[in-house]
């Protein structure tokens, strides 16, 4: 199967480019399924039932998220009703929502997992332990497994990639909003990239108006952030997975403006 | 002028590949000057007078560093004697060493600045204020100015890039040890990249043995780190600067194994 | 002179107890001037022109603050007009508001300084350097100088106390909302205490409803905080300063419910 | 039963005062058992088999620790052999050592638990979940349960206290090395104090030479720390627990120089 995984979609400009381009990309790139990280899809901070459904309406198969998942309160009562919207698996027991989903395309089952790192982030449960537990269940159903590891520190992301090698089809990093140039197939067949970047205005600081972020750094006074609008780019990777083995055949950065 | 800027050199394997390749690269790429980040050149943590001189002996023009600058105590009494070795400019007043240097090639003066970010790092003095002050001095001598901004958070690095746009020739990020794919010339002529990656063993976690880092993440018990040795890659960028204007003409990722 | 310094006033319950008790305390304890930390006076997060004026209306002489100073946006355009309201001195140049004030009681001049720590907090300018600069100016006017050092880490607070010893009349810590039992006169005459605690509902977690904070720790989902209302206690210290030398004669914890 | 719980013992001066005074205190205060936090007992950083055995040799019943537990490598192969030495319970599965112990005095069983917070600290497993699991086991044996919660943030410590109220005999905080003045019996019978302080040289910054810590704050250059030697004080609390109910009758700060 061929997957397109799209980096953090930032507000309306991000949703717009996804909506406009996704059908053509699916066709031209021969994509079987699309995953997007949607944690910034609502005004740059958080995700709502509406932005979730707008993205799913574009034909997105699964939406992953990260630390911004709860920024918009409306998502809390909604999340359990929408199985295609994930939050990091390693939230503590009892938290609404799911961290994984198994879907089916033409008789082939495939799964998506969403986990969060902890270095410079909230102290969630251990993502390594959480992965081990979840794979025990998922591996019974399929070995086509895609992981969005939402994390800050390169050390934690790369370590997590090695930890997954040979156990899942791919690990793609999100959260920094900057694409890295280290995509590769690890020795045991897991495709890996430290970060797939963001989908939104690149004439900005990680999708937000430059002036606002600069003001924050220069004064240390909190600022209301607004989503930037210029130079919209869609960023992601295309991962081709062998249906039989679940191992990756290729991983390619994909970018479009 | 054409500059080669090389990302964090990790221990002996990193120094070795620099030593072996640098002359050929200078020639084939028509490089006028070479800058390397050396904060991990001594056993992966810190830099010593010996590794400094080994790197300079290879024909490196300037060595920049970052948060690991003081890991090896021997560097403290030495640093003031070696003007080609920089530590971040925004250490408080009174700290040994320099954060900038002006050199001359064939009558053309050019400068290097080294600054550190503060997000998820030590609370140094403000890098934005420190830059402003230093540029007042340096701009009187030359407008060919290369900045190594050693920082963790992509927001701080990108914001710093925009802040510098039109005032320096380039801002290259270091510290994460992972190359990003966002190299560009900003609208007012400053070349920018979020991180230029590392020079060392890439079969590793940011240059360190994978097993050790994984053990740390799985147990939270501190581990003695050793430098990894397999899959040595040199990473950096080549920046071409217009001698008259000090603006950048091009920035290109450069990688060699 | 005898000073009463009151710890972080939390919302309406905190303002209420100050309003009700302050006159009687001034009289019974023979207090010459009162300082309160007001960073949580507006709904537990931030301070407004209204809560500032309510506190000043109770006869408070100076209001200090800390990291929550900007939580309520209305304070930004107001702060420059109210010299008795301080924000940490070590915000970068250009930030509205002042970090120190000199007042006069019966011909005696006395000063208050407000600084913030940086460990586990925002990277403001160095509080040690900021203190040095400010004392050069203030020492020309008076040697009765009271410092509110708003900080998290005990190491930074105690180190700051020693750094100030003999140079100011007292250093009282704020921010943790828990009174410490280490009040003392340092060898060169500076009164010191790591934290003077808070003024608000103590049947709570640092002034906020226990259920809300617990929910946050158990789920890692952000929660809207509301100010707790039971078991209201006013906490602070009384510091007696020798008018001639500016050295402290005594420091005593003061608590009242 | 009457328990003496002693705050972080700092290096040789800390061990010395414990050794000299403990017998007399036990007698005069009618103490049934003594617990000390030993994470700084070896040179200020960590604990060794030798300092463990020295402390136990003084008649200490249980040694708790915290984030510095692994600073001295020798403790790793030793810790499983010494059941009276605890490390925080919420280290991940598979980590050497134990986080709780059950002992017997004159037919009465009693237990000690050691947990660590996570705010501004390493991302261990959730201390709230870890407590719940452990209490299920321990409650079958005894309801006299003493908890050392080693944590930085007052919010996390106080929240943990409330979470434990009525389920354990007492929660005492450690780690900040500064005694707080908020000891109390919570409504359902759990004794609580945010921090019991340290046992060592108080003419210092949290037990370390002031000059060294100040140099660190002023220059941001790491410094080798040495244990301070002047003004040695032993700090702790005495908690009286009802043998039948496991509820606390009293908690009193205890200090001796
Ligand atoms: Fe994001
Ligand atoms: Fe994120
Ligand atoms: Fe580095
Ligand atoms: Fe670094
Ligand atoms: Fe506060
Ligand atoms: Fe505060
Ligand atoms: Fe300690
Ligand atoms: Fe500790």
The radius of gyration over CA of chain A amounts to 17 Å
- Spatial gap, N to C terminus of chain A: 25 Å
- Structural class by sheet pairing and helices of chain A: alpha/beta
CATH architecture of chain A: 4-Layer Sandwich
By CATH reckoning, the class of chain A would read Alpha Beta
Q: Which residue ranges of chain A are poorly predicted, with pLDDT under 50 across at least 5 consecutive positions? A: none
Greatest contact between two chains = A-B, 31 and 31 residues
Task: Please trace the helix and strand order of chain A, writing H or E for each element.
Answer: EEHEHEHEEHEHEEEEHEE
Annotation field: number of helices of chain A: 6
Bound molecules: fe (ii) ion
How many β strands of chain A by DSSP?
13
**In what range is the share of β-strand residues of chain A?**
25-35%
Biggest beta sheet summary of chain A: 7 strands, mixed
Dominant shape of chain A? globular
């Amino acid at each position: 199967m061929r997957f397109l995984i799209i980096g953090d979609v930032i507000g309306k400009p991000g949703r717009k480019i996804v909506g406009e381009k996704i059908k053509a990309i699916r066709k031209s790139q021969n994509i079987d399924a699309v995953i997007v990280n949607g944690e910034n899809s609502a005004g740059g901070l958080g995700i709502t039932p509406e932005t979730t459904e707008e993205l799913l309406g574009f034909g997105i198969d699964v939406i992953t998220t990260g630390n911004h998942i709860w920024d918009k309160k409306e998502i809390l009562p909604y999340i359990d009703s929408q199985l295609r919207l994930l939050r990091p698996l390693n939230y503590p027991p009892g938290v609404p929502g799911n961290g994984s989903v198994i879907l089916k395309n033409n008789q082939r089952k495939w799964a998506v997992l969403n986990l969060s790192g902890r270095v410079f982030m909230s102290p969630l449960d251990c993502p390594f332990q959480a992965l081990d537990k979840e794979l025990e269940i998922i591996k019974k159903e399929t070995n086509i497994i895609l992981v969005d590891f939402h994390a800050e520190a390169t050390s934690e992301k790369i370590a997590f990639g090695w930890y997954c090698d040979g156990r899942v089809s791919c690990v793609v990093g999100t959260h920094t909003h900057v694409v890295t140039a280290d995509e590769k197939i690890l020795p045991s067949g897991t495709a890996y990239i430290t970060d797939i970047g963001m989908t939104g205005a690149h004439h900005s600081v990680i999708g937000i108006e430059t002036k606002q972020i600069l003001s924050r750094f220069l004064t240390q006074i909190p600022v209301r952030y607004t989503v930037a609008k210029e130079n919209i780019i869609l960023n992601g990777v295309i991962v081709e997975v062998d249906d039989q083995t679940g191992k990756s055949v290729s991983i390619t950065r994909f970018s479009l403006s």
